[in-house]
């Protein structure tokens, strides 16, 4: 996302030529669009993984053992994965802080995904100005009163 913003600033510094008559302008616009699309995919994946970890964190059972917090997803499973957080004496504040961090990460990545989506939309709209949708409400033929006299 940072690289996309830097390419956007470079694109602002290039003198504008109508209809992309310079190779540099076309290359920068293409790179900006592709990086925005890649950033969109990366941000959506980051939201999905943070949401997955948040759901796992809500199901953890945590115990304080020797100045560390040990959390398990399923306490009945002896082979279940144990997450150990060293130097955390209070497991309640640790899990609440991690949940808040994951929620903040989801929100910020969602905002970044929306910014990348809007950048892709603006670039697409700039390139292809007209979207053909809907039905015409006026006839294609000229009526009797509007005919030109030759």
From TrEMBL:
UniProt name for this protein: SSPN protein
InterPro entries in the cross-refs: CD20-like, Sarcospan
Compartments, as annotated in UniProt: Membrane
Membrane topology per record: Multi-pass membrane protein
Transmembrane segments: 30-51, 102-124
Keywords, alphabetical: Membrane, Transmembrane, Transmembrane helix
Classification via Pfam families: CD20
Chief location category: membrane
Source taxon at top rank: Eukaryota
Gene Ontology terms: cellular component: dystrophin-associated glycoprotein complex; sarcolemma
